[in-house]
């Protein structure tokens, strides 16, 4: 009787649909809905507009479908939720790459606020072809004399809101709730500010995401999602020897710290895991980002990337981005065999931790840090494969890119699983990812917002909102910034040794005078030494000094004036 009543209600729903509704039926196929439940054989999924309205098996209600319903034959195939990449730094060229690999939603964790706002409206309203776009709002922490970095408030255009102290947490989070999808803090903030912000964010149903320099501290302060494994590793180092080694490392959360992980102590894992799981803290380990040059799949992954990146219709992707992505497979090439063994020892410790974390009830949300030396779209599939290597089941690995990713931002009421009344973002595969997680790459069709997506690459693909200036996320070769040259002048016909200061300098960075390179010595990431010869100072007047870091990545700074005076 109940089944008949449900069928009758479904027929009423179909009859009541407006004539203009866009209807889609996915017929046949095995549905892996992303909840962790057993797959549903011979599934039928009816979509009205962009919403899933009914899921059933067999042909019971098929005859009642509106006559204009588009039917997708999925017999012999497998249906999964649209994938979510939970950590990207979105760039203009990424849209087609994400769609081609079934990534129907992304979380942007690092771009100027107004750019993010414009991108979100364009992507989510379908005016720009690409995935759904959600983003985290940054907070400028104002200190005496400037913000947390000693900068003046004029730099705040990148962030959404400024905060002077914990008493402003409620106002700050209210502003973020109105304008963004989650809160992003930094590893530099401590409990006095982190805790009240996190408390207000959780009360407002917002995720709180941050790098971490100690996962247990971050958990105590109220974090929702920890980016990278740096903080987890530090919290799992207890021995005097390990702490001493840690003190001698230049640890930066979010950078490659591969020598750190060898000191993780499995005996401490349960304590760390209990702390995180009990507080419902999730982890994004970014395995492909950190270990892509070392793990056993490196050559296989590199070949897949190369085949993709040299597609003739994808040449609108900047050459520097392609070179950086491929180059990161070789970051460890010049390391000694002994060092590589230590890196791999640490990687195995990380794998053990993640396997135990999920078995204890912890949740992983998969993110790639794309635009930081990983290939958008494809790298999420590599990440899922590495999670299986770490001990996750294929089902849990899939959930890291679907259900658990949606839960991170509180979007699980509309994304992340294939269920009634959720948005119709789905991927149809030619093979079962539960038998082999690599089969998530065997994409037959992608459906985003109820519409079948063109997953090809087009040489005329464009994105209207450009990013200018030093915002590139090249981890090892950023666009340099020039702040000061000392001395600022020299007499005509003399030689001068210049102290050039700024940030983002790498050993291959050079100083230029009016566009010509001069002798340069790298001192540190913030300082260069250069020699201005008599030939360069032969004429009185103003010359322009710039700093350039070559491809891949890099770029040229804005110029500073330098004066050649009369002798």
Could you provide a short overview of the structure?
Helices cover 29% and strands 24% of the residues.
Could you characterize the architecture of this molecule?
It is built from 16 helices and 28 strands. The chain is of the alpha/beta class and 567 residues long. Among the domains are: 211-365 and 379-392, no CATH class; 481-565, Immunoglobulin-like. The strands form five sheets. Strands 7, 8, 9, 10, 11, 12, 13, 14 and 15 form a nine-stranded mixed beta sheet that branches. Strand 24 (520-524) and strand 25 form a beta hairpin. Helix 5 (191-203) packs across helix 6. The longest helix is centred in the middle third of the chain and has 23 residues, at 337-359.
Average pLDDT for all residues? 90
The oligomeric state is single chain
Q: Biggest β-sheet: count, sense, barrel?
A: 9 strands, mixed
Q: Which stretches of 5+ consecutive residues score pLDDT under 50?
A: 1-20, 144-157
Radius of gyration: 26 Å
Helix content: 25-40%
* Class based on secondary structure composition and strand pairing: alpha/beta
Counting DSSP H or I runs of 4 or more residues, the number of helices is 16
